[in-house]
């Protein structure tokens, strides 16, 4: 089930149900493209046709960002849980370890994906790492061959947005893995190079507050949330009045 924000669909399911849906698709031989949705992306998509196409092309649009959760609650929506990109990646790895599926890591600086893979393997000993390629590899044909030869079911792409999503859209129908997720800087987090906000901030969706405390000069960026919520309310009024 999905909700719409500015014409972009967003999944309402939590992690457990998403895992069931995605791994059912793996077993059926169906491909899945996962993209994280937050207020900034939704607002930008109203003026950026390329971004809009990326968001609409995905099979699973996960509600990453407390603003999406709040917007759903302002209406009659059913989104009750944030599904962050990095936590989605970890949930996929955990489920893959339990089910015997393997993963492929593509992107990041040389050595980062290797360190991230080691950390994931330490946490989930049964996890199968089918292959690793850093983001500096430019031989596209070589990348294709290595990915297909790996036998991986799930491919994580960390090339930064929108490059990683463009790669997935261009290649996923030709490559063998079933699941594709653009994960931005997640490899660096798993590798220990970048620290996340403390768990208490993440639990209540207050990463923005943690960043603001650490970097108060970025306060203008935090205005995006109230602007987004106002835009959602205005859109709903137009729909109700039409």
Automatic annotation (TrEMBL):
It catalyses: UDP-N-acetyl-alpha-D-mannosamine + N-acetyl-alpha-D-glucosaminyl-di-trans,octa-cis-undecaprenyl diphosphate = N-acetyl-beta-D-mannosaminyl-(1->4)-N-acetyl-alpha-D-glucosaminyl di-trans,octa-cis-undecaprenyl diphosphate + UDP + H(+). Pathway: Cell wall biogenesis; teichoic acid biosynthesis. It comes from the Bacteria. Pfam families: Glyco_tran_WecG. It is an enzyme of class 2 (transferase). The keyword Cell wall biogenesis/degradation applies. InterPro entries: TagA_TarA (IPR034714), WecG_TagA_CpsF (IPR004629). Its EC number is 2.4.1.187. Coiled coil: none annotated. Keywords: Cell wall biogenesis/degradation, Glycosyltransferase, Teichoic acid biosynthesis, Transferase. Catalyzes the conversion of GlcNAc-PP-undecaprenol into ManNAc-GlcNAc-PP-undecaprenol, the first committed lipid intermediate in the de novo synthesis of teichoic acid. PANTHER family: PTHR34136, UDP-N-ACETYL-D-MANNOSAMINURONIC ACID TRANSFERASE. Belongs to the glycosyltransferase 26 family. TagA/TarA subfamily. This is N-acetylglucosaminyldiphosphoundecaprenol N-acetyl-beta-D-mannosaminyltransferase. It comes from Metaplanococcus flavidus.
């Amino acid at each position: 089930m999905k909700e719409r924000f500015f014409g972009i669909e967003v999944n309402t399911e939590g992690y457990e149900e998403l895992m069931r849906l995605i791994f059912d698709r793996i077993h059926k031989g169906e491909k899945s493209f996962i993209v994280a949705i937050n207020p900034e992306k939704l607002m930008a998509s109203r003026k950026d046709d390329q971004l809009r196409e990326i968001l609409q092309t995905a099979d699973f649009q996960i509600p990453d960002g407390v603003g999406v959760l709040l917007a759903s609650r302002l209406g009659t929506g059913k989104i009750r849980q944030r599904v962050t990109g990095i936590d989605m990646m970890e949930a996929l790895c955990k489920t893959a370890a339990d089910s015997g599926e393997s993963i492929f890591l593509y992107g990041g600086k040389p050595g980062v994906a290797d360190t991230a893979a080691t950390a994931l393997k330490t946490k989930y000993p049964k996890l199968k790492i089918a292959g690793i390629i850093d983001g500096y590899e430019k031989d596209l044909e070589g990348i294709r061959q290595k990915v297909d030869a790996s036998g991986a079911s799930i491919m994580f792409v960390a090339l930064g947005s929108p490059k990683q999503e463009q790669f997935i859209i261009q290649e996923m129908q030709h490559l063998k893995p079933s699941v594709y997720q653009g994960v931005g800087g997640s490899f660096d987090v798993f590798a220990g190079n970048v620290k996340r906000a403390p768990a208490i901030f993440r639990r209540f969706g207050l990463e923005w507050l943690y960043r603001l405390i650490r970097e108060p000069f970025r306060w203008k960026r935090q205005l995006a949330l109230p602007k987004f919520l106002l835009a959602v309310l205005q859109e709903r009024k137009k729909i109700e009045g039409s």
